[in-house]
């Protein structure tokens, strides 16, 4: 079949006119970028469920995906407790959330996850001042920081990302049980892939410290904790979920930028295109917190608002039970707490 006259003329114009070529190339590039951004943005939580009368605690809620999660849940009518280390920044973020959502029931409480004393104080005050807890979102964390120790002598990444959240969850478990059906949402990462819980040297006192290896260990711990917590609390109506939020433009990567300044500078512009925004990165957290019927998937792993298969190391139930026992001993938790 021969080309129609108009089509031949258009093709001739494209071949001979540089401006036409440029225009087509620009249009194709623009469309490709839009499609790429849409793909990178990932899933969106479509639930319209209201949370009036519900209470939510979010750690690390003053910035990044924690703040966007707080904003979304406040819009749904929840009472939101923003657990933050820096009260000044926390109050500023809470003010912005109140103003943007019209929900005045957003409060800030101090929580320093590098201190178990702070965790215990936060849990004690919350139990004394709140009559229920429907959703606990363990969101705060550090990523690939230089080796350092918490107040209690734990390697910082495992101490902040896992051990402090383990203790916090245990201390608030009675509230979660009495408010059932309730949920615990642990922000893990795809970095759990290839991770290993080094039970013989959890804090790298004997082996050389590698910030990425340590980060992977802490994110694997988040996932294994979710599995074991789900197993232990399913009968009480408490569900637990772990998730990968995506690669996001937040303050979490500040240590990576410090460690690799030249590489970070070179990748800054591409990163704007290839990373999720905090609002996009919060979608799977929100999905796990509010989606109806998710209880049947307690203990599971999610990404882009979908159920995903974790790496084999993330399904090791023996390691999960062992990690639970190690964690309880390290933080000084027993059932009588």
UniProtKB/TrEMBL annotation:
Keywords: Oxidoreductase. SUPFAM superfamilies: NAD(P)-binding Rossmann-fold domains. The gene is zgc:153441. This is Retinol-DH_like_SDR_c domain-containing protein isoform X2. The keyword Chloroplast does not apply. One of its GO terms (molecular function) is oxidoreductase activity. It holds the Pfam family adh_short. Belongs to the short-chain dehydrogenases/reductases (SDR) family. The keyword Oxidoreductase applies. InterPro entries: NAD(P)-bd_dom_sf, SDR_fam.
């Amino acid at each position: 079949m021969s080309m129609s006259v108009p089509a031949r003329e258009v093709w001739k114009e494209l071949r001979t006119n540089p401006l036409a070529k440029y225009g087509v190339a620009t249009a194709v590039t623009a469309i490709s970028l839009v499609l790429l951004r849409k793909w990178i943005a990932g899933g969106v939580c479509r639930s319209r469920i209201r949370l009036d009368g519900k209470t939510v605690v979010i750690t690390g809620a003053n910035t990044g995906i924690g703040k966007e999660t707080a904003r979304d849940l406040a819009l749904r009518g929840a009472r939101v407790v923003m657990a933050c280390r820096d009260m000044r920044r926390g109050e500023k973020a809470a003010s912005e959330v109140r103003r943007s959502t019209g929900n005045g029931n957003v409060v800030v409480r101090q929580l320093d996850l590098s201190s178990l004393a702070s965790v215990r104080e936060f849990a004690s005050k919350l139990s004394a001042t709140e009559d229920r807890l429907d959703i606990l979102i363990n969101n705060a964390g550090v990523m690939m920081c230089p080796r350092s120790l918490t107040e209690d002598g734990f390697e910082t990444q495992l101490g902040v990302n896992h051990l402090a959240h383990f203790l916090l969850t245990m201390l608030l478990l009675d509230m979660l049980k009495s408010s059932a059906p309730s949920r615990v949402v642990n922000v893990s990462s795809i970095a759990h892939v290839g991770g290993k819980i080094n039970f013989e040297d959890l804090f790298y006192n004997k082996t050389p410290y590698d910030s990425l290896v340590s980060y992977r260990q802490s994110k694997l711990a988040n996932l294994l904790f979710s599995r074991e917590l789900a197993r232990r609390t399913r009968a009480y109506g408490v569900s637990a979920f772990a998730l990968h939020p995506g690669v996001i433009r937040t303050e979490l990567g500040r240590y990576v930028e410090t460690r690799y300044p030249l590489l970070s500078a070179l990748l800054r512009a591409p990163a704007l295109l290839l990373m999720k925004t905090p609002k996009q990165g919060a979608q799977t957290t929100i999905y796990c917190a509010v989606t109806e019927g998710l209880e049947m998937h307690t203990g599971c792993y999610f990404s882009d608002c979908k159920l995903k298969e974790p790496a084999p190391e993330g399904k090791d139930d023996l390691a999960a039970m062992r990690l639970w026992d190690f964690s309880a001993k390290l933080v000084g938790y027993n059932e009588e707490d």
